[in-house]
Each structure stands twice: as structure tokens, then as C-alpha cells.
Design goal:
By secondary structure, the protein is mainly alpha-helical. It has twelve helices and two strands; from the N terminus they run αααββααααααααα. It has a two-stranded antiparallel sheet.
Length: about 375
């Protein structure tokens, strides 16, 4: 009788814990703003809960589907085409806070860049799997994929959004490195990107101002430095045990975006060092299980895909937490599973569903190796 192996239970439980934790913090951090905008302290929370339920349904479906179907060209290339079409279309959508990042439909919003990140990871995994061990020819093996990455990055920059392109480039670079890309190519690409990064930051007034405020927030404490200062105050006042859930003060219209970009600051204030370390530990465990899934994947596509999805979520969490702790300048990247944002939460759960599917097949590979006495 054929034995059936289950998906990674630890990864599943950690994901569930992160989502529940996030829902609690979204309710706590958004209550004042929700009351002011919608007349109900729980209106924002119910929207996030709806996305969480939808995302969990998608995760449960995907974890039961063989992930290798995603490596079929009939899935990869139409997915990329849809992503490019959405990224172009959103540039002509209604502006929200002087940006064009969301489609609004029936009171709900959808952010195409979240989908684009996911499908781009799938494409890179597909590309690398077809060229495993042959990444030594720049024009043949690297340039076509690099060209697509640049197109996606440029479109997202037009929204404008700099944080997401940086995350995409970091993850893509890591995936190519894992696949065996020679160091010299990574060095050339890094050096070529430095002037572009300089122009994007120091030639754009509001981004340059963010960098200056990050370096010296007290030079303009009520202006460009306000966000950084309020975040540090929120983290500092939490102490070891925190002020208690719902008892934070900085979310009362002092801390900007307390339920989105700076939800980790509210967590540190209300749950203290203990709560902040607990949340960070959950992301570390998520990374460990995702990376283990990559190492145990039965094929190259599963290996690269699991690595890319794990790095996508973990790198984004590190960037968000670093911004809150004033280690990096503000970038507007949500905390995966925790920050308010339906698109982010949904596609993080979709990514986890794919990871769980890989982990289920990876256990078959591990069992077969142990039976055959292989490494």
C-alpha cells in the first residue's frame, strides 16, 4: 500500500499563527482610524479577515495540487503576460495618495505588484530549472530573464514604488546565486545598478528627503523626520512586557500608517520586547522550514521555487522590521501576514500554499533517499 506523506505541519502552524497574530494587531492598531473613517472600530479588521479567509482557502487548495504544474509554459508565460498587463493598467487607475498602485473594485482594492512578485519568482524558478548548471553565458542564460525583471521593476517604479523593486532585485539575485551564477556577473550587475539607484534616490526630492530624515530625523522633527521619530518612540515605550493589547498611544494619530507599514512598532509598544521577539521568531522559523523545503525538493524547479518564495517573504519581513527600528530609511513595504493589506496577505498565503505543496513532495524524496541509502 502506498504511504501518503503530509505537508510541513510546522510551516502550516507558523503561518496560521502569523495570520492570527496579524489579525489581532490589525484590529488593535486600526481601531482609532477605522472609527474615524468608517464609524466602526472593527471595519478595517473585517476587511482583513475576509482576505485572510480567501487566502487560506487558496492556500489549502494549492497545497494539494502538484506544484510542478506551475513549471508548464502554458502557466508561466500567460501569468507573466497578465502581470505586465496589470502593471501597465494600474498606471491609468485612480490615484490614491498620489500613487497608482491599486485597482478599486466594489470597495475592495487589489495591488498588482504583489501578484507580479509571485509570478516573477515562479518564472525565475522555471528559467533556472531549465538551465541548471549552465549559467555561464550572459546573452543566452541571463539576459532574457534579466530583461523581464527590469521591465517589471521599471513598471512598478512608475507607480511610484521603490521598496518593492528593491525586494524583487534582492530575491532574484539570490535565486540566480543559488543556481550557480558566477560571482563576476553579480558584481557587474551590482556596479551597473549603483548609478541607477543613486538617480532614483538622490534625484527624486521626496526620496532624498527621506534619506536625510533617516540620517538626522531631529533636524525636522515635525516634518520629514516625524515618521522615524514616532516609530522609535513607539518601540521604546513598549519596554519588556509592553503597554498591553489595545493600550498603545502612538497609534492615536501620532504614528503614521500604524496598521500597515508600522504595525511592528505598535506590536513592540503594546506587547513589548517579548511580543516583538516572538513575532521575529515566527519569521525565523518560517524561513527555516521554507529553506529546508528548498533543500529537500525533489527537482530543480521545486528547489529554486521554494527558495525564492521563502526569501521573498523573509526579506520583506526583515526590510519592514528594519525600517521600524530605524535601521533602514522608510520604504513602504508591509510586514508579511501581519500588516493590513488584502493583496499582500492573499499572495503570501498563496506562496505558502505552494511551499506546502513542495514540502509534501519533498518528503517523498527524503524517504526514497533513506530507503536507497543515498545522501
Amino acid at each position: 500500500m502506498r504511504q501518503r506523506f503530509s505537508a510541513d505541519r510546522t510551516l502550516f502552524v507558523v503561518t496560521l499563527t502569523l495570520v492570527v497574530f496579524g489579525l489581532l494587531m490589525v484590529f488593535s492598531s486600526s481601531a482609532p482610524l477605522s472609527t474615524e473613517q468608517f464609524g466602526s472600530s472593527s471595519a478595517i479588521f473585517w476587511r482583513q479577515l475576509a482576505w485572510a479567509i480567501l487566502g487560506f482557502c487558496a492556500m489549502l487548495v494549492l497545497m494539494r495540487i502538484d506544484y510542478r504544474i506551475l513549471s508548464h509554459p502554458a502557466i508561466v508565460f500567460p501569468g507573466i503576460f497578465v502581470a505586465l498587463a496589470l502593471l501597465v493598467g494600474v498606471l491609468f487607475s485612480a490615484s490614491i495618495q498620489q500613487t497608482n498602485r491599486w485597482f478599486r473594485v466594489a470597495g475592495m482594492s487589489f495591488q498588482p505588484s504583489e501578484y507580479a512578485k509571485l509570478i516573477l519568482v515562479i518564472f525565475i524558478a522555471y528559467w533556472l530549472a531549465r538551465r541548471a548548471g549552465r549559467l555561464d553565458h550572459f546573452l543566452r542564460d541571463i539576459l532574457p530573464a534579466l530583461g523581464l525583471i527590469i521591465v517589471v521593476v521599471v513598471l512598478i517604479l512608475q507607480e511610484p514604488d521603490l521598496g518593492t523593486p528593491i525586494a524583487i532585485i534582492l530575491v532574484a539575485g539570490a535565486m540566480f546565486f543559488i543556481a550557480g551564477l558566477p560571482w563576476r556577473y553579480l558584481a557587474y550587475l551590482f556596479l551597473a545598478g549603483l548609478p541607477v539607484l543613486y538617480l532614483l534616490i538622490f534625484r527624486v526630492p521626496y526620496r532624498r528627503q527621506r534619506i536625510l530624515a533617516f540620517l538626522d530625523p531631529y533636524a525636522d522633527p515635525l516634518g520629514s523626520g516625524f515618521q522615524v521619530i514616532q516609530s522609535m518612540i513607539s518601540v521604546a515605550t513598549g519596554g519588556v512586557t509592553g503597554q498591553g493589547l489595545m493600550n498603545g498611544k502612538q497609534k492615536l494619530f501620532f504614528l503614521p500608517a500604524p496598521h500597515t507599514d508600522f504595525i511592528f512598532a505598535v506590536t513592540a509598544e503594546e506587547l513589548g520586547l517579548i511580543g516583538a521577539l516572538l513575532l521575529l521568531s515566527l519569521f525565523v522559523i518560517y524561513f527555516w522550514r521554507g529553506w529546508r523545503t528548498s533543500l529537500m525538493a525533489p527537482d530543480d524547479f521545486g528547489c529554486f521555487l521554494a527558495a525564492g518564495l521563502t526569501l521573498m517573504i523573509f526579506c520583506q519581513s526583515l526590510i519592514n522590521i528594519s525600517v521600524v527600528l530605524a535601521i533602514l530609511p522608510p520604504k513602504g513595504i508591509p510586514l508579511p501576514f501581519v500588516s493590513y493589506g488584502g493583496s499582500s496577505l492573499f499572495f503570501c498565503l498563496v506562496a505558502t500554499g505552494i511551499l506546502l505543496s513542495i514540502s509534501q513532495r519533498a518528503q517523498w524524496g527524503e524517504k526514497l533517499r533513506s530507503i536507497e541509502g543515498g545522501p
